[in-house]
Amino acid sequence: MNTMFLAIFLGQIDLFMGLFIIVLILIFASLLKPKKSILPERYWWWGIGLKLIGALFISLIYEYYYRGGDTTMYHLGGKTIYESLGDSFFAWFELVFVGKDNIDPNVYINHARKIYFWGDEPTYFVCRVLGITNLITFGSYMGNAFLFSFISFLGSWCMLLGLARMFPHIKRYLFLGVFCVPSVVVWGSGIFKDTLTFAALGFMIWAFLNITIFRRKFVLSWIVLALAVLVIQLVKIYILLSIAPALILWVLLIYKDKFKNAFVRFVIGPFVFAMAFGGGFYAISYFGQQSQRYNLESLAYTAETTARWLSYMSAVDGGSGYSLGDFDYSTTGMLRKALPAVNVTLFRPYLWEVKNITMLMAALESFALLCFTIYVFYKRGIARSFAQMISEPTILSFLVYSLIFAFAIGISTYNFGSLVRYKIPMLPFYVIGLVLILYPKPKRVVRKRVRIIRKPKEVESFVLPNNRLEWK
User: Fold this and answer.
1) Which of 255, 233, 254, 234 is nearest to 244 (CA)?
2) Candidate from 2-16, 290-304, 315-329 with smallest mean pLDDT
3) In CA terms, which of 121, 388, 437, 470 is 20 to 30 Å from 453?
4) What is the pLDDT of residues 98-125, one digit of tens each?
5) What is 2-41 written as a DSSP string?
6) CA dist., res. 409 & res. 422, Å (int)
């Protein structure tokens, strides 16, 4: 048994600080709770409860099943940063806010070189965040796990709030899609990179809708959008590469539909798709330039090396690897495997591929998602479903993002254990896209105001004997 990891969870500080942080979160949540909201108050508390349960569940899984993992190393790295305060505040500040190329040599020798993820900026970002949260939790793993889950809740709530303003008729299903997908509950709540990027994605969607659609809270929304994009860019830039084309397509289609003339909408439609394609290509190029691994020239190489490494680790562990068959990692070679890659992300592992308990949970979720997909297309009909996709910008944009993302991680992961974590930024969008096909937005009926003209009552008169008029 990994006694080092065992001590992380079974220490007295984790029991005490875990309960203390839960109480602190509930108090803060009661103060932060919106007084007036389009969403029922119970969704607020249900969302918090699900995130806290998810954090506790995955922590126990890593304790008693995996016997440690990357979350352990995040914790130890964050604890090293926290303990550097015993040396000096300057050392702590450098470890949290200064890049690896500018770190003070003494700080590196005394502290930084002890951190396992030092030098890997996307991964070390989690340690930086833990270095800050440890000021509240005093180095407690469970305390930090609950704080991470609350950060994830806030981002998820913002996403839900923005979408509920657009589609108030399916608020219940939006809540289920954002908060209740099992892998999102579990893997989006613990001390992981996925938790932070999922929260940032939620904040980004909220800010994007405020700026482009609702046109409200501009200053706050721009600040939130900039910070959210920065976090995703630092930690998992491929999320930005996948969602940028879909967001551009989304807003262009929404503004196209504002034209009342059907002929005008038909004429400008191709231009909208051309602009979305061009804007998406530019966004991919721009964000790709910020990362050597994910620029356009290196994408194929990155996909190949990542796939081979994860496939090798699966073979070593005797674990949950998968294969898409033989193919070369050129652009055309990968495109030939687009359908198998999307299929493996959305609907695998199949139930007969299960090798362990965690694969069983993933297989049950994938089977449920497959059944729901079939049900939606059966219920609405294939023709009506595709017509609904084309007519509703949100459905088309969400499914475009989901398919791009599913292809990207399906072609490069080759391990079911990693895949179930990597795909959580896509799952709510795919589920909500299907829900919108099943329950389309009611069309507004414009009623013409009819002016009713009433005839005045006829007035009769007669003449009295004294020649005076008298009216009836």
Assistant:
1) 233
2) 290-304
3) 470
4) 888 788 888 888 888 888 888 888 899 9
5) -HHHHHHHHSHHHHHHHHHHHHHHHHHHHHHS-SS-SS-H
6) 7
